[in-house]
Specification:
Elements: E1 2-8, H1 13-26, E2 30-36, H2 39-48, E3 53-56, H3 58-61, H4 64-69, H5 75-93, E4 98-102, E5 106-108, H6 113-118, E6 124-128, H7 138-141, E7 144-152, H8 155-170, E8 176-177, E9 180-181, H9 190-193, E10 197-199, E11 205-207, E12 222-224, E13 229-231, E14 235-237, H10 245-265, H11 282-292, E15 298-300, H12 301-305
Parallel strand pairs: 1-2, 1-4, 2-3, 6-10, 11-12
Antiparallel strand pairs: 4-7, 5-12, 6-7, 8-9, 13-14, 14-15
């Protein structure tokens, strides 16, 4: 049995559900714990009643330490702050032998158990960003990505997880400061700080827009849809990266189609964070820059429905 956990609110609901349904499609023996980050998400997920899932409310999850931090961090920063805490909560509350954290904007094309099993006798699994050189942000965003991380319920795994929770509670903000950034830069020295750390070697795990240029023909186990944003009702922005043509067809197309099907199911409710960015004098310059760098990826939704 493989145990996973994630967290998302109603703004990310369709992405979280798409991730869940892709996990359901490709996994056989699993259980997913979902921290519903607001009451709307909690109610909808309970009503949907997916098999092999447990929905956790914020009221059950938040302890006094987190509640004291909450007013002083943005919603995004608080979400990052909670990441190690939700892994620890699931392991301790449900007596799990191990738990793998999943970002809500991942999407599975194969069974992630392949990746978890790679760690063997080690206690902690982390994934490299593997940035394409022109997108390299290791200095400010970290060597490793908090997207897919496994901790075993043993001495080595719990030591690292509790240390990480303490650091995130102390400082977790959406800025680079004193060698820290969010919850992520803390991982940079884990291969030497902690024992039993396994760095994922399977290149099919951790594909994302910042590295897919190096692996255009690789079939992902999961893909991280970082920066994907819906613009109003009819457009989607895939982010400022150069994306191979076959990546649009084989990776982005099924994901966006899935999100749009879920949008239809929820009717007029905005559960995919679609919005219209404010237009400023910088807006045309920003898009010209992206075009010059071959990173203008704004499409009509219909482009993917009939791609």
């Amino acid at each position: 049995m493989h145990y996973y956990c994630t967290l998302f609110d109603s703004n990310y609901l369709t992405r979280g559900i798409a991730m869940l349904e892709s996990l359901q499609k490709h996994s056989q023996d699993y259980h997913l714990y979902i921290l519903a980050f607001d009451d709307i998400a909690y109610k909808i997920l309970n009503d949907l009643n997916y098999p092999h899932t447990t929905i956790i409310s914020m009221q059950d999850f938040e302890d006094s330490e987190l509640l004291a931090l909450k007013p002083h961090r943005t919603r995004g920063e608080y979400c990052w702050t909670c990441t190690p805490s939700v892994i620890l909560y699931c392991i301790q509350t449900y007596s799990l032998p191990h738990c793998t954290y999943l970002d809500a904007d991942l999407y599975f094309y194969d069974d992630p158990a392949i990746l978890v099993d790679e760690m063997g006798e080690d206690s902690i699994l982390i994934t490299l960003h593997r940035y394409t050189p022109r997108y390299n942000q290791e200095k400010t965003s970290g060597i490793y990505c908090v997207q897919f991380m496994t901790f075993k319920n043993d001495e080595r795994g719990m030591k690292a997880l509790k240390w990480w929770r303490e650091r995130c509670n102390e400082w977790c903000y959406a800025r680079f400061e004193d060698g820290k950034f969010g919850d992520q830069k803390y991982l940079d020295d884990w291969s030497t700080r902690f024992e039993g750390v396994h760095i994922l070697q399977n290149l099919r795990g951790g594909l994302a827009p910042w590295n897919i240029q190096q692996f255009p023909s690789l079939s992902p186990i999961f893909y991280h849809f970082h920066h994907l944003k819906f613009i109003g009702e009819n457009k989607v922005d895939l982010g400022p990266y150069t994306l191979p043509q076959n990546t649009l067809e084989s990776i982005y197309k099924p994901y966006i189609q899935h999100l749009l099907r879920l949008r239809e199911e929820f009717g007029e409710n905005n559960y995919d964070a679609r919005s219209i960015p404010k237009f400023t004098w910088k807006t045309p310059l920003r898009f010209i820059k992206r075009k010059l760098k071959n990173g203008y990826n704004v499409f009509s939704n219909s482009d993917f429905l009939g791609y």
